[in-house]
Amino acid sequence: MLPTGRYRGQVTSAVASTQLSHPEPPSQPGSLRPPAATVPQGAVAATPVVSAADTRSGEKQPPLDEYYNALFTHFGPQHWWPGKTPFEVIVGAILTQNTSWTNVEKAIFNLRTARLLSPSAIEKAPLRRLQRLVRPSGYFRQKARKLKAFCDFLRLEHRGSLKRMFATPTIVLRPKLLDVFGIGPETADSILLYGGGHAVFVVDAYTKRILLRHGWAGENAKYEDVRWMFERQFPSNARRFNEFHALIVQTGKHFCRTRDPLCHSCPLGRYREEGR
Ligand code: SF4
């Protein structure tokens, strides 16, 4: 299977075949992690794409403001994301696909120790060395390629400058990120929101699960429809999106489990029947 996306990373033919032998499974709940990063301001909101499929985008909308207040009251501020720099946030967003944050931390520690936590260093690093360093995060062959693909994109499109990249309007930057090998909507929006302070909402499996169980989204709800559900209620509110996604991840981890959700003690328990 060939990778998709215009920016595919610098890969030698000798190792390319082995890198592509591990197709990634679907995104898992809790794949995205937290932080301590300051959210830059001044971002431009993306223009949402609404297909209406499988979401109830009519007049009735989930009381997301109430959800937010209930979750914030219960969990308090989450201080996401745990990257020290915007580039580290990006690296974390790529490495956290389909693995726990604990494993990502090990990989980032390796990269930091090897002084590879910069776009130019990752571009120059031999692929096999990069694979070894990110191995703790799983799917290490693909993830090493994804990191190189992003750095390739950054150099070619933004002269290697994250500042220049994040100064690009969201409506322009988001589709470009989605064209990079290994960057899907959840990763792109994590980069935009937590790395650059752009006002986009990150939809993960927990978000979909909660909305499904509350009757606001169908089994096959599309990412963009769910994203728009949030963005239309809090337009251009990067701070709200930052906190809300983190709170939803906490809810999913502690209450809205795959099996046997703890609705009786969940901060959102009182809202479960509203969308039905
Ligand atoms: S645990 Fe129950 S009340 Fe809480 S978010 Fe999940 S479905 Fe809703």
Produce the secondary structure layout.
Blueprint: H1 13-19, H2 64-75, H3 86-95, H4 101-113, H5 119-124, H6 127-134, H7 140-158, H8 162-166, H9 170-178, H10 185-196, H11 205-213, H12 223-231, H13 238-254
Helix pairs in contact: 2-13, 3-4, 3-10, 6-7, 9-10, 11-13
The structure holds iron/sulfur cluster.
Instruction: Tell me roughly what share of residues is in helical segments.
Output: 40-55%
Largest beta-sheet details: none
Hetero groups in this structure are: iron/sulfur cluster
Low-confidence stretches: 10-57
The fraction of residues assigned to DSSP E strands is: under 5%
| Run of helices and strands | HHHHHHHHHHHHH
> What would the average pLDDT be, to the nearest integer?
84
Overall SS class: mainly alpha
Q: Per CATH, which architecture of the largest domain?
A: Orthogonal Bundle
- The number of helical elements comes to 13
What's the number of structural domains? 2
Can I get a quick summary?
The chain has 276 residues and is mainly α. The protein has 13 helices and no strands. Helix 3 crosses helix 4, helix 9 packs across helix 10 and helix 11 packs across helix 13.
